Amino acid sequence: MLLSELKKGEEGVIKKINASKSFKNRLSSMGIVVKEIVKLKEYSLAKSTIEVKVSESYVALRLKEAALIEVEKL
């Protein structure tokens, strides 16, 4: 399952990030790494952006970026 497929309020464990090294590094700097638990908090009005909670941080991702992150739903 992809992070972009989670519904509001659902949680998942990151299993794999299918992205370039530079994008993986950017995600890593925000705490989005393999084995981390993420919770989908909110969609933007146009549903083009999502807000996720990682540890104690909130991160906004474009939907196409979230589609590169594989998660296992909890």
Highlighted features:
single chain; 74 residues; alpha+beta; SH3 type barrels; 2 helices; globular
Strand order across the largest sheet: 4-3-2-1-5
Q: How many structural domains in the coordinates?
A: 1
Beta-strand portion reads 35-45%
Q: Sheet bearing the most strands, described?
A: 5 strands, antiparallel
Task: Give the beta-strand count.
Answer: 5
Briefly note the structural class of the backbone. Answer: alpha+beta
Report the mean per-residue pLDDT as an integer. 94
What does the secondary structure layout of this molecule look like, with pairings?
Layout: E1 11-17, H1 21-29, E2 37-43, E3 49-54, E4 57-62, H2 63-66, E5 69-73
Antiparallel strand pairs: 1-2, 1-5, 2-3, 3-4
Could you explain how this protein is built, in words?
This protein is of the alpha+beta class and 74 residues long. It has a single domain, classed as SH3 type barrels (Roll). It contains two helices and five strands, in the order βαβββαβ. A five-stranded antiparallel beta sheet has the order 4-3-2-1-5. β2 and β3 form a beta hairpin. The longest helix is centred in the middle third of the chain and has 9 residues, at 21-29. The model has no long low-confidence stretch (mean pLDDT 94).
How would you sum up this structure in a few lines?
The protein is an alpha+beta fold and 74 residues long.
